[in-house]
Amino acid sequence: MSPTRIRCGPALALGAALTLAVPLCAACGQQDGPRAAPPPAGHPAEQPPGELAGPPEVPAELVAQARRVRADRLVAEGRGVRVEEVRLPQPYQLQAGQPAVQRLLRITVEGRFQARALPLVLYVDGVPVSRAVEAPDLRSVSAVLLDPGLVRDGARVSYRYGGHGPQTAAGTLRVVR
User: Fold this and answer.
1) pLDDT for the residue numbered 146
2) Higher model confidence: residue 3 or residue 102?
3) Is residue 31 assigned to a domain?
4) pLDDT for res 68
5) Judging by DSSP bridges, how do beta strands 81-92 and 71-78 pair with one another?
6) Which domain CATH number covers 147?
7) What percentage of residues in the chain have a pLDDT greater than 90?
8) What are the angstrom distances between the C-alpha of 46 and each of 104, 112, 126, 157?
9) Which phi and psi (to 5°) does residue 56 adopt?
10) Is 19 a member of any domain?
11) Which of 14, 52, 80, 89 has its CA 20 to 30 A from that of 121?
């Protein structure tokens, strides 16, 4: 009986070569050899896939509740964007041990949006504010703004889907006095 020849394409050959060239520690699964330094604190590589680096965790339920109530007063506005103070029907506990909030700032951006699997995140001057909730007609999105210090004359509002990629400019704020 003659030996059988096996033909393999370049991709299979490369895969086999890499598998043999990069030995792994059987006990821990780590690659032998020099190890890369861990990413700095807060770096997106530290976040699990799909997670956002930076914006405060604001429950979608709170954003939806803030979207439904009528605004008490206009705080800032710009072309296609506004920040309003709203009063919730009942206090909302954001974190255990912290006082419940009943008044908060709602930021709304008008435009044409798409329902996507990736979360839409609003930014003020490049700082992530929170995940936004789309209106049923997809003509606006709203988010809860927990840091009132971000609301100032000339602040630029933008958004993007997911935690990476380019931001889309939404407008510039002008504080209402």
Assistant:
1) 85
2) 102
3) no
4) 84
5) antiparallel
6) 2.60.40
7) 37
8) 30, 32, 20, 26
9) -65, 145
10) no
11) 89
